[in-house]
Amino acid sequence: MDEHDELHIAMFPWLAFGHMIPFLELAKLIAQRGHKISFISTPRNIHRLPPLPPNLTPRINLVSLALPHVENLPDNAEATADLPHDKIPYLKIAFDSLQDSLFHFLQSSSPDWIIFDFAPYWLP
Hints:
The structure is a single chain. The chain has a single domain (about 10-115), classed as Rossmann fold. It is built from 4 helices and 4 strands, in the order βαβαβααβ. The longest helix has 16 residues, at about 15-30. By secondary structure, the chain is α/β, with parallel strands linked by helices.
């Protein structure tokens, strides 16, 4: 693939493994086609993702954005799997608080495309 044909695609899934894992699988498929991926999540979630195949690690950048503290959100809760159902609204508040950090990352990295999930209504 010619360098001019390579795309940089940022991916920003909701903080649930039922969303992050399919996004990661899509990232791998896109990276296999020669494109660069920035997969964006929180540090703990990035750490818990399955390992990337060695041949794709140069093409997939795992980007960690610190999840802001939100009252009533337990420490170390960065995914829906970490919470009882009644605490998930606090995770959504924290997720929405990533807006500034994400803006700065996108501004500095200038991706060609952004693939995002249902939750960041503010992203477009």
